[in-house]
Prior knowledge:
Elements: H1 3-17, H2 20-29, E1 34-35, H3 36-43, H4 47-59, E2 63-68, E3 71-76, H5 79-95
Antiparallel strand pairs: 1-3, 2-3
Amino acid sequence: MDKKFFYEKKxxxxxxxxxxxxxxxxxxxxxxxxxxxxxxxxxxYEQPHISKSxxxxxxxxxxxxxxxxxxxxxxxxxNCMGDFLTCLNTVLVHTLPAKKE
Length: 101
């Protein structure tokens, strides 16, 4: 694979990750496959906003989708993405200053 193309694809993935709603979606999907309706209910955003975010994540190759009847289900494309998110969450917990009450 061309080295430049490889890094351009990495940038595409990181751009897809550079959005709080998309990161919330990925965190939610790390526990398993979910219907769009479940994602909307859990995260509390409007359905069109969730759908646009899901499309960005799909375009980046981070999530997979399948259709069953009228429902569309999404899941992480690769199990290692869940490991990456867990690692990122651990880094944040240990590096963010404690919130003062």
